[in-house]
Structure formats: C-alpha cells, structure tokens
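Q: Hi! Curious about what SalY-type ABC antimicrobial peptide transportsystem permease component looks like structurally. Here's the sequence.
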Amino acid sequence: MPPETGEAMFVLKNAWAALKRHKWRSLLTIIIALLVTFGTMFSTAVIHASDTAYGSGYDAQQPTLDLKLKQSVQSTYDGADSSWSKHYLTWTKYSTYASAAQSANLTFTYTFTEAVPVRQTAKFKAVAGTADQDAGKTGGEFTLRTFYSKEAAAANAQGAFTIVKGKNISYSTSSTDSTSALISETVAKKNNLKVGDTFTIANPTDAKTTVKLKVAGIYRYKDGKAAASTKLAKDNRDNAIFVGYYAFAINGFDSTTGKGWAIPDLQVTFTMDSMSAYKKFVKLINKAKLPSGYEIVSTSLDAYAARIKPLGRLAERLRVVRIVLLAVGGLLLIVLVALSLVGRRGEIATAMLVGVSKTRIAWQFMLEVLIPTVCGFAIGALAGGFGTKPLAHWAAGGYDVAMSASLVWQTIGYGLLACLVLAFIAMFRVVAVRKISVFEPRATTEAKEESK
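A: Let's find out. The predicted structure is below.
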C-alpha cells in the first residue's frame, strides 16, 4: 500500500537524502537511463524506417522504365560517324512494347525526349570542342532537344536546369509555338543574346535548310558545375537548345525518313502504376526481344535506391548498437542499483527495530531507484521524440525518419516497466531483512541470508 501523506513526505525526504549522499552514482544512473532510452528510440525509429523503405516503400513505387544502351556499346560512340544513328530506337519499336503492355492490361503513362545535332550559323556560334570536325561529319555543333512533358524536362540526361531569365517553353500537347527556345547562359553570353532575340540554326544534313528560333528563356544547370570540355561541340551540354515538341516536329526534325544524323535520337520513358506492373512489363519486353546492345533500366528505382542507401547503412549499424546498448545499459543500471543496496542491512534492521514498517522502508528504497531512473528515462524520451528526426536527417543523408506515436507509447511502456523492475529489486532487498538480524553477529546474519 502507498504511504499516507505524512509518511510519504518522510519517505521522500529519506530517499532524497540517500541520493544526495551518493550524488555521482545518482547522476550516472540518470545519464545511463537517458542514453539507453534515447538510443533505443532513435535506433528503433531508424530501423523501422529502413525496413519500411526497403519493404512496403519499395513495393509502393511507380517505377519508370527506359531502354538504354549498355555502357560497353556507349563507349564506342563516335560523334563524327553518322552510322552511329543505327543504334537509335524508332517509334515502331517502342510501339511494339507499348502494344504488348496494353494487351496484358498493364496501366502506364509515357513521355519522351528527342534530339538531333544542328549546325551553327554565321551569327550563332557554339562553344567550341577540343577537336571539332566538319559539320558534314558531326551533323552540327549544337544539339536540339525536345521534351514532351515537364517530367521529361526534369529528368534531362544532361542535368536538371532552371530558368534564370525569361520564361520556360510550353510542354502542352496543344501548343502551336514553333519558334520559342531555351539556350544556356554560356551560349547567350557568347552570342550576346537576350530574351526576345532571334537566332538561326541549320539542318544536320543540309546547311542551306535553316530554322529561325526566338530566345524565350535562358537556362542554367542546377548543379552549378561548369560544362566539362568535350571533343565535339555538340556533346557539350551548354550547347543544348531546348524546344517544345511542336517546334521540333513542325520544323522537320521529328523525321521518320531521315538519314544519318537527321534521324532523331528517341528516348521513351514509361511510368508504370505499380511494381508488379513494372516486373510484368520487363518480362514482356524480354519476351518480345530486347534490341541488341540495350538493357532495361529504371531511373526512378535507381534514384530511390540511392536515396535510401544511407538510411539502410545507418540502420544496419544501429541494429548492433541497439542490442549492445540495451544489454550493457541494462547491466550497468542493475549494477548501480545493487551498489546502492550494499552494506545497508544494518540500516534497514535498525529502522525496523525503532518501529519503521517494512512497507515504508521498501517505498524509500524504491524511490531511491525510481527518481534517477524515471528522470533519465523522461529526459531521454523527450530527446528521442524531438531529436530523432533532425539527427536521422543528418545521419541518413537527408532521409526523413518519423517518430511514430506507437513507438513513443511503446517506449513509455517498456521504459516504465524497466524502472519498476529495478525498483522491485530494491524492494526485495528490504523484504529479505529480518528485524532480529540486527542483534546477530554480522558474519552469522550474512551467512543465513546467503543460504536462503
């Protein structure tokens, strides 16, 4: 039974006095309880987030699917050999795969990019390459690229870009804008062009066929890196000109009859509505025969895997840390509680002899354990609740780890249970002492207690 109010104050006063007599042991108990609680909350939250990310989180992805040239083939690229365009996939090939997916009742959306080299003209010059060749061999010094949608633009293979002057081009399929284009800051400065100015480019296989475009906006790559020098000017990412699909098609670049560099480099990206649909689509493509030199890749899944990889590494380390923390921390707390009980047989027996009940003494000993352990537990729980997210964000490469309500309540439950177990150990020490033992020789009494 809990003590009465007057007794409670007496018990609390005695417990507090005992803690003050051994302040360093009490402080160490608080610190260990804090570390065990915080470490357990933090590690459990990270491990749970990792398990979710690699499990249900992965399964919930809506993967993109692309057909890309293998690196072994890409490494043989020669920008001065127009026969390289034989590696390009056509609309016919992509349609075969799309039809197979539709026949299998797979749901997907798609977007695409197309690109062709275009020639510079007398008043519009590209950033030179380190070993440029005649445009008759390379198709030109610029690369004209179109994006079918803003998603395709965001996934630009040369790098994500932002508009620093002017406005973006329209990605609407209903757009009839045939002249608006985006050019890089570098090219704009080189040619002294500003928003609203016009410039002229020439066809990759016919220098006399020209197209006039207008600068709608000037872009900059978001990574802030200077373009790496390239052998050919057209391969320099700063020499990329971006236009809407209507402008690309109406000006004759979306050709199905072109030869050499006039054949557009078509890249279609499928987005599946589920992982199961993605896996089925992969099987359908392989069954329909993957083009020679190509492989199936998923940029979105690769990006997701890269994003959660730091989280996974952290979680694997914390699985070990959590076990060690619970084992060592729990053992240290038990040792500290045991140390607080050593040599107090006489104190307990004397108190009982002068009329203090075992219940009151037991409550005092329990409070001596509960005050520092609950205090450390409470501070650790608050630190874990509020500190897990920012700490995990830093340690897991920017991945956000949430502290769920269920984990908080679970920690509170197990934490309080552990505190009570330690308190009961102290209580049992009191129960084990008999009043008569104060009159017995110390060695005899201890021998009796050891024989129990």
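A: A fun detail: The mean pLDDT is 89.
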